[in-house]
Amino acid sequence: MWRAEMTKRQLAGTAAILLALSVPAHAQDDTPSGKRPTVSRNAPPSSNATVNLINLLVKQGTLSEEQATALIKQADDEAYVARQATRDATTKAEGAEKAAATATDAVSPPGTKRVTYVPEIVKKQLRDEIRAEVMAKAEKENWASPGKYPEWAQRIRFYGDIRARYEGDHFPAGNGPLENFNAINTGNPFLEDNANAINPYFPPTYNTTQDRNRFRFRARLGADVDLYDGFSAGLRIATGDSSSPVSTNQTFGGNGGDFSKYALWLDRAFIKYQPVQDFVGSVGRFDNPFWSPTDLVWYKELGFDGFAIQAKHEVDEGFTPFFVGGAFPIFNTDLNAGLNTADLNGPIKSPSRDRWLFGTQAGFGARFDPETNLTVAVAYYDFANLRGKLSSTCLVATATDTCDTDLLRPLFAQKGNTYMRLRNIPTVTTPVTTLNYQYYGLASDFRPVVASVQLDFAQFNPIHIILDGEYVWNTAFNRGAVGAVAVNNFAPTSDGSAGPFNGGNQGWLARLTVGDKEVKHLWDWNAHVGYKYLESDAMVDAFVDSDFGLGGTNLKGYFIGGNVGLGENVWASVRWMSANSIAGLPYAVDVVQLDLNARF
Question: What pTM, to 2 d.p., does this model score?
Fold first, then answer.
């Protein structure tokens, strides 16, 4: 390969010299954008010796027609630059001679005869200096390479992907109703039964009985920009039915139907600082900075708002420790948040209920040999102000009344977490009757510890055998305290009444993958199989996988899938996921997904 590259470079240099010598003098002012001789195996003899030489190389199979055409263009451009440099050098030399003659005439006595002489070494120096100036100008302004982007545009890299999906959701008989707390918390409070009012309506629930078929797509377009001195920035927009943090899928026929246009969301916006290769600082909305080989804890496409640092360093050959830390605001209290309750001093403003995630992770990557790699990490996360609290005594007569802990309700959730009532509403009949309009908050604190591992065997290169494992344990979970306030995740009983609380705080996932590590080219392939077990309060259900069991925690079951390349950066995927509930009412669903993917 090295000899081939040297041959190409030597040919380009030789071609440039021959072109400069063989092009007629009257044509030497033509620009590189002019018509060039064509190169072909069947091309007739040319008056240009360089073209004839390259045509002979093409006929002998030394060069392809594409390589030959590229050599002609490169040689033509370099010959053009050389001619420009020579012409400018000649002009400047003539100007220097005239200036020297004028200066000599000014000091010479009348009648003095003068013979102009510029030493050859001076002419050579002038030519070299002018050639360097012309080459620098050509490189900066790109006029020696027509069609090349300006320097600032070369620092922008656009990328994107499109995915079309068929999804089938299949529910067996025997599923119980699952209350949709997210619908309640993002809409009007739910009127519970009490001694003063019987609610004739059921609470909103998830579909657990009717099979559904959906055709969906995802489109994303982003740009990474190299700035200066280690700074870079990035933006990405994406589709989506809503602003959900765990899905950019857009359902065909959604958004009102009738071929209505779909919305685009700002999915990424960040600034990064990387002064050295082993350190990165990020601020804005960016990819998950924590290493996570599975989606047990974090959905793989989840974006993080806030700031983070990532550091690594190879302390010994093949052994690289790493560290990640960051702080991420989950919810920020509105500046003018207040209660619709008034006293003599006017409306009451609510205290701040900001919610944050603080996280840290440490781990290492170890390369035992060129075909065996191990990565291990342990992370600790602290969700601040996430657990709900019972309000002070609150009189509620209408659905628009508010209480002082309403801001603690999650404004996005999937399903699975254990909930508690937020409002402390006493039974009052005078002067007005109170009604039990309730919002719901999370019943547990969340401070999970997560252990992650990946073992990659590449002894059958390019085929890899990859083992992924992840375990999560919510250290803040208190079964007694949670069970005392819980309104869901009770064990079913034969008579239909609620049994004991049976939620949990642990989860794990194991997966085996065989095949190409990445599917990029035609007939690249891989396949995987695994098992997932995630109890109700092991992790905040808002941020976990949105596909397995149709999203959330309190799920267990198997999954299997595969990918195959259909061309360069085009591939097809298939997945089957069978999930069952762990606690609470019975729930099961089988999800089938068929994808066609393309990236650019």
Answer: 0.75
